[in-house]
């Protein structure tokens, strides 16, 4: 019987086409508004590396001075250079990497290409294995290059295609900031969202094209493109060496543990490390170390702010307004068919069958409205992407969001159809037959 009611539902879409079009368009607009906002929230609040997000951690140490104006309960979001080196050398972790944003002029050496400003990041060789970075060709630089800070680099697919066309750039040289670097690998398209590995001082939507050894960037005294916090007692010695020896925090740092259960052991190691450093006159404040996994780190950095959540709630409020209008339109449509309902009831159709038929028809409106809503969602996101590169990066509709849109539209239409369907079931056959 349901199949018959479903067939009737699609057939009745052609009855009173103007009213049907108004319902479909109203529902589609509401679904598109809510799904566009929900898609952006879904992307930014998702797990960017679910296969190991519980094993990747950001350690933070509280080296702020004891006396400071407006003290924070949270430690600085980065490490000092000396602490990053110590944790990398002695920490009980599987892999470790420092992360520092850099930029500079990149020159392919070809006469037909001018040097271009390029965003990059200085990391340790463990970075690529830690974050499951895929390679189109080649791979990371060697451990010896990592330790000595060799002139090597990994580049993005976009940069490789722009500089070398179809040729494989592995083994070839690029000139970056006046120095020749040998390309060891080309990264396949890799755009984890949110861009969790570099949230402080970096563009969380734009992905870097150049990766070089951290020790190379430090040896060449490259300026950190990010936050440098020098909330310290006394003066900081001038120059790059003074920055490296200071208590200024400017190095982002990640560790990978063998399993999530090792978190407590690593936290104990951090406590022991700070206790030892206290004996040397550092870390004046009480122990206040933090160890954030990927999702905790995203929450700590407030990647999904209250304004984004508010926008999503407002969009669903708009969908509710659309549903109210759909209820009115369904009431008008079903009321116009009171005579038909009266005849069915007089011929013996029970109320429950009338209820099933008209609720199925409301569901059909929801499916059609959802299909149009999905198409409109793609259009809205494409339009938003043209206005903002950041939104363009996030505007990804996967099968989860497609399914959500259809289910949302179907459920919304069924809820909107409850009152009109109930009213249709209250039609009295005798009254209708007398009026015909």
Automatic annotation (TrEMBL):
PANTHER family documented for this protein: ABC-TYPE MACROLIDE FAMILY EXPORT SYSTEM PERMEASE COMPONENT 2 (PTHR30572:SF18), MEMBRANE COMPONENT OF TRANSPORTER-RELATED (PTHR30572)
The keyword ATP-binding is assigned to this record: no
Listed Pfam families: FtsX, MacB_PCD
Residue ranges annotated for the MacB-like periplasmic core domain, each copy included: 20-270
Protein name (Swiss-Prot/TrEMBL): ABC transporter permease
Transmembrane residue ranges: 21-44, 313-336, 357-384, 399-419
Residue stretches making up the ABC3 transporter permease C-terminal domain: 315-426
Location within or outside the cell: Cell membrane
Top-level lineage group: Bacteria
Membrane topology: Multi-pass membrane protein
Keywords, in A-Z order: Cell membrane, Membrane, Transmembrane, Transmembrane helix
């Amino acid at each position: 019987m349901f199949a018959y009611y479903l067939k009737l539902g699609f057939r009745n879409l052609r009855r009173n086409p103007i009213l049907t079009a108004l319902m479909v368009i109203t529902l589609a607009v509401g679904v598109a508004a809510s799904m566009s906002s929900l898609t952006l929230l879904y992307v930014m609040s998702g797990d960017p590396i679910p296969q190991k997000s519980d094993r990747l951690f950001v350690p933070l140490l509280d080296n702020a001075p004891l006396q400071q104006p407006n003290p924070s309960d949270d430690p600085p979001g980065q490490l000092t250079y000396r602490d990053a080196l110590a944790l990398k050398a002695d920490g009980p972790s599987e892999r470790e990497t420092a992360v520092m944003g850099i930029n500079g002029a990149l020159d392919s050496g070809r006469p037909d290409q001018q040097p271009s400003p390029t965003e990059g990041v200085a990391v340790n060789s463990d970075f690529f294995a830690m974050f499951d970075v895929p390679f189109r060709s080649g791979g990371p630089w060697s451990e010896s290059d990592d330790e000595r800070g060799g002139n090597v680099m990994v580049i993005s697919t976009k940069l490789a295609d722009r500089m070398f066309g179809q040729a494989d750039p592995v083994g070839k040289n690029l000139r970056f900031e006046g120095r020749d670097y040998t390309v060891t690998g080309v990264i396949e398209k890799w755009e984890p969202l949110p861009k969790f590995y570099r949230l402080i001082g970096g563009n969380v939507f734009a992905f870097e094209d150049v990766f070089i050894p951290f020790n190379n960037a430090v040896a060449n005294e490259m300026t950190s493109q990010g936050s440098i916090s020098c909330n310290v007692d006394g003066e900081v010695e001038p120059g790059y060496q003074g920055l490296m020896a200071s208590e200024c925090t400017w190095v982002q740092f990640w560790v990978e543990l063998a399993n999530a259960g090792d978190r407590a052991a690593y936290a104990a190691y951090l406590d022991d490390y700070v206790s030892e450093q206290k004996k040397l006159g550092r870390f004046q404040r009480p122990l206040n170390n933090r160890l954030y996994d990927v999702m905790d780190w995203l929450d700590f950095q407030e990647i999904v702010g209250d304004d984004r959540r508010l926008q999503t709630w407002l969009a669903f409020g708009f969908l509710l307004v659309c549903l109210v209008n759909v209820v009115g339109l369904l009431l008008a449509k079903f009321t116009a068919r009171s005579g038909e309902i009266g005849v069915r009831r007089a011929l013996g159709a029970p109320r429950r069958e009338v209820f099933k038929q008209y609720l199925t028809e409301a569901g059909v409106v929801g499916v059609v409205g959802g299909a149009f809503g999905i198409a409109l969602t793609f259009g809205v996101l494409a339009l938003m992407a043209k206005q903002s590169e950041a939104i363009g990066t996030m505007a990804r509709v996967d099968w989860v969001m497609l399914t959500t849109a259809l289910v949302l539209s179907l459920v919304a239409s069924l809820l909107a159809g409850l009152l009109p369907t109930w009213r249709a079931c209250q039609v009295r056959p005798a009254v209708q037959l007398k009026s015909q």
